[in-house]
Amino acid sequence: MEFLVRFDTALPETMTDERRAELKSAERARAMELREAGVLKRLWRVPGRRAVVGLWEAPDATALHDALTSLPQFPWMDVTVEALATHPQEA
Amino acid sequence: MEFLVRFDTALPETMTDERRAELKSAERARAMELREAGVLKRLWRVPGRRAVVGLWEAPDATALHDALTSLPQFPWMDVTVEALATHPQEA
Amino acid sequence: MEFLVRFDTALPETMTDERRAELKSAERARAMELREAGVLKRLWRVPGRRAVVGLWEAPDATALHDALTSLPQFPWMDVTVEALATHPQEA
Amino acid sequence: MEFLVRFDTALPETMTDERRAELKSAERARAMELREAGVLKRLWRVPGRRAVVGLWEAPDATALHDALTSLPQFPWMDVTVEALATHPQEA
Amino acid sequence: MEFLVRFDTALPETMTDERRAELKSAERARAMELREAGVLKRLWRVPGRRAVVGLWEAPDATALHDALTSLPQFPWMDVTVEALATHPQEA
Amino acid sequence: MEFLVRFDTALPETMTDERRAELKSAERARAMELREAGVLKRLWRVPGRRAVVGLWEAPDATALHDALTSLPQFPWMDVTVEALATHPQEA
Amino acid sequence: MEFLVRFDTALPETMTDERRAELKSAERARAMELREAGVLKRLWRVPGRRAVVGLWEAPDATALHDALTSLPQFPWMDVTVEALATHPQEA
Amino acid sequence: MEFLVRFDTALPETMTDERRAELKSAERARAMELREAGVLKRLWRVPGRRAVVGLWEAPDATALHDALTSLPQFPWMDVTVEALATHPQEA
Amino acid sequence: MEFLVRFDTALPETMTDERRAELKSAERARAMELREAGVLKRLWRVPGRRAVVGLWEAPDATALHDALTSLPQFPWMDVTVEALATHPQEA
Amino acid sequence: MEFLVRFDTALPETMTDERRAELKSAERARAMELREAGVLKRLWRVPGRRAVVGLWEAPDATALHDALTSLPQFPWMDVTVEALATHPQEA
Asked: Where is the Muconolactone isomerase domain positioned along the sequence (chains A, B, C, D, E, F, G, H, I, J) (predicted)?
């Protein structure tokens, strides 16, 4: 089952540059694992924003939630999830 | 997987009373079948409104969509669906 | 009478890990008591969020408020309550 | 238990003046019965609008829904209900 | 003239418990004076929230504003006011 | 007491030009009476819209409602009212 | 350049079943041409709604607009378009 | 003074094709006059919608309103106007 | 040209009482100058809020912006501006 | 392709005046480069706000995003982007 997921990530102003760099690289590594596992299928940047739209696939909303919370930046993300059904033209 | 589903049903003013009664009884019959199949689990009335909140279970959003569109009043319903994940206290 | 209740919990960044762990375990314990008392009937995770949707039962809104404020994390919760009426198919 | 209830009533343009007068007088009569029964406690006009705010008392949301749907103009009302808890200063 | 008034009070996290207790008792005392003066007529708790809905009576919006700003917690309240007209059934 | 009042007037497409002209001239006549009575103090056009913002003065919301409903176009107006308090710089 | 496009299609109640069937088949045929041309890349059903989310690719917003207006049901669609930038992980 | 103006035009379903064509050509002619007069400076299409964003220049909001109402399709437009100030980088 | 302007002023909790008093008196002095210059015409208090609605007159939005930014409390104000056109009844 | 872009810039209260002045001058310098490159075409001030509306031109949303993030104040801007299509009157 596919989901459209939006994140808006806001790291706190007080976070050190080192911690930020660390988090970004851990985030990218985890995202790559989720891509290889077929859970994260596409990612787009919302122009002008620190926000991201993604296409995810998971057996259900619980598995999706587990994938999302496995992202190292999850504690600073505001996430919204939209469940998608298959369109008859693609069935 | 469970879903929280809201319907707001607005039959057109021009529909005859006979057609309304027919639709309501067909709706109830189909809802009963969906309950027996374990797809429709609970239904609540939103007080003061023709709206209904329901708890549904389906393998994915495509199966849920098929169940919803099988309701005889579907063409006159405004429906919103919220995907639910299992809460750790209930896992 | 049943109520649909949404919480969005935001513990402050400055809270220590110890205090967090303590609060989470106190929260779970109190939730279990409310389940046993039949006040808290179901709980779902909103996927991708620290938010929770619950089905509660209480004699009236005052009793519900007392149950909600008895949760140890209540001071950090943003809560919205929707009163539900019995649906004729379930009466 | 008390409820704050808002109605916005919109009788269709095509309704005859006779039917309108009939409905308004039936509405007033039913409202009076509900006042005498202690269900409808106060009613205010929202200035400049055909809308009304009311204070209602009913054992639960199901009983409130039944009272609201007993109003002759109910089919043309858009209704929203807010459940109220007792304030500690009034307990 | 009556007004429906909503408050959402948010005392800052950094306020001491002593200062909070002091403020709450001063608030209750001032509210009691306003009740006796017939300015504050009813107060309800919004279930699950630190919010309050009240029915107030004042000669006009200026007098209402003065009553509201006389509350000791006013600096931390987010307040919205709705002017009410007399309903013909109560005139 | 002053009020800021917004109207959005939408005469039905099916109304004849004659009826429209009649209504507009009756509207203007009634507005003039309300200006002379000191109830309607100012009127502005919202640029690009059939909407109007007005400054009204009335003893209370009930008197304001009566003034607004005395406008011949009232049945086709969507009206919102905001109660205003005196600013200390003007007291 | 990719775009996320939402449609909500509402054919008028008065349209004959024949005209509806004709339109749906013309819509499907045009969608297939746009898929073959690489303009329409994915389509999902929003569960419970007549709405569709699609992933489109076009050189710019003008070319996208031309593709959208070439759909036979365009006159009855409410469309919203969100421009997407490439995410660095996919560059 | 410049203004950013959005129109959403919705000609009624019942309008004949002939009347539509007539209106569109009258609209284009009037727009051209307003461009020559320097009142209408730019016009963009909102992709996927019958909506238009325009940059207009007029001495004040009253002159802008007169320009907008001179458009033949004005009775079927929903218009919103945003007043713009000169940016210091362009002063 | 007239403008309807709303301010919501929120001085930071950490500002000293002395600095607050200073700012308020500077604000009042500047407002008086703007009144004498015919730029600030009326000011109302929104009951229950630290917000203010004002009627301003300026040759255009740039001059209005300059007047607003000349207020000493401007850095802590959230301001919204609505351009007004002359109503035909007042022309 | 053109884009309408809104920024709302909020430098933190704790930033020194020196750092602010530095940032503003770097911002102006970068904006000038983007104007010379034909990427930034127009800029307007939203009256009464620290917000800016701009007309930008870029080959696609990715190039626009790169231009926006090259602004020195980008980390403190809340940005929204609207893709524009060419209007047939200007084609």
From this structure: 1-89
